[in-house]
Write a structure and sequence with these properties.
Elements (H helix, E strand, L loop, with lengths): L6 E4 L5 H16 L1 E4 L10 E7 L4 E6 L4 E5 L11 E3 L6 H18 L7 H6 L1 H4 L5 H10 L9 H12 L8 H6 L9 H19 L3 E7 L5 E8 L2 E8 L12 H17 L6 E6 L5 H10 L8 E6 L5 E6 L9 E3 L2
Parallel strand pairs: 9-10, 10-11, 12-13
Antiparallel strand pairs: 1-5, 1-6, 2-3, 3-4, 4-5, 7-8, 8-9, 11-12
Length: 334
């Protein structure tokens, strides 16, 4: 399975003849390709080409006198097989900006419903136009409302637009966008679990906290977030119970307890309470969440926050143990 989009870097310049002979012909022989001018002006000091394949794949190539950059959601020409890969933030700004303008225009042309949400489109671009995941990732947002039940996709997209507009996750774009995955098939459970980290980020950012995803810890693995609140530093791990209507058990209380227990008995048991566990119940329907809200089940880890956020940004929940993080946007349940 291909990973999110990254550039391939060639440490030398390419002539127009080489681009035709070693890149275009390889693509055309294998897939059927058309070489075109790019939709936007090439970066200063670079020549650029756009390749469109018969199967809908697209690729871009920009070259100067001393280097070349390839980016595409198609097979890589053999002449570039042994080249190094770099993310959007790791190549010259003008090359990255040009390529992203090309791809965002492509994305909006294919999925115009994303255009009102430019920060979502930009942030998830490495996945939305990945080789294998370009259809499944967009389908998850459009047809499955990013894991929210009984919601309109426009409202769910608006929630993540408001989070990503803050720029709090920009430095971690490749890591966080990649959590959605690039499988050609929609896996609602896995993808919704990935979005639970964005839901938790929304609560933390709205509360004014600075967050760092995938924070390394002494046990040799990473915790979902390192959170700074003034002089206080907390570690946050996120888990998301599958909604009862998608589990073997139809009991929402059991769903919360069993999912949290799996996390506690695995990743968190080495930290002796040094991590705040966030249990995201945003996939629960109203009646299932009402049962959790009324009983407030223990999750066998303290401190913990059990919450549900709705696509309109409203959230409610309860805590177990001493949670030092302020969460003013989470309405406490009685």
């Amino acid at each position: 399975m291909a990973k999110p989009l990254r550039f391939r870097y060639s440490p030398r310049g390419w002539s127009d003849g080489e681009i035709t002979d070693r890149l275009y012909r390889d693509l055309n022989d294998n897939l059927g390709a058309t070489r075109k001018d790019p939709w936007f002006r090439a970066p200063d000091g670079y020549d650029a080409a756009r390749f469109e394949m018969a199967n809908g794949d697209v690729a871009l190539f920009a070259t100067s006198d001393s280097e070349g950059f390839w980016l595409g959601n198609t097979e890589t020409p053999s002449a570039l097989w042994r080249t190094e890969k770099f993310g959007f933030e790791e190549v010259p700004y003008e090359v990255s900006r040009w390529a992203q303008r090309e791809l965002l225009a492509q994305l909006y042309d294919e999925s115009p419903w994303l255009e009102p949400y430019p920060h979502v489109a930009w942030f998830f671009l490495p996945v939305f136009l990945s080789k294998d995941g370009r259809e499944s990732s967009r389908e998850f947002f459009r047809d499955h409302t990013a894991g929210f039940p009984d919601a309109d996709p426009e409202v769910a997209l608006g929630l993540y637009e408001s989070l990503l507009r803050t720029g709090s996750l920009d430095r971690y774009r490749y890591t966080m966008a990649g959590k959605l995955g690039t499988s050609p098939v929609v896996d609602r459970t896995r993808m919704a679990s990935a979005m639970a980290e964005f839901n938790t980020a929304k609560l933390l950012v709205d509360a004014g906290h600075d967050i760092e995803p995938e924070a390394p810890v002494s046990t040799g693995h990473s915790i979902d977030y390192r959170v700074e609140d003034g002089e206080t530093v907390s570690l946050v791990e996120v888990t998301r119970p599958a909604p009862p209507h998608r589990r073997r058990t139809s009991n929402p209380i059991s769903a919360v307890r069993s999912t949290a227990e799996t996390k506690v008995n695995g990743q968190l048991d080495e930290h002796a309470g040094g991590v705040v566990l966030f249990v995201d119940c945003s996939g629960f329907r109203d009646d299932d969440w009402a049962a959790v809200r009324d009983e407030r089940p223990d999750v066998r880890h303290r401190p913990a926050v059990v919450y549900r956020i709705r696509p309109d940004g409203s959230a409610e929940g309860y805590s177990k143990g001493e949670v030092q993080l302020g969460l003013p946007t989470v309405q406490p349940v009685d």
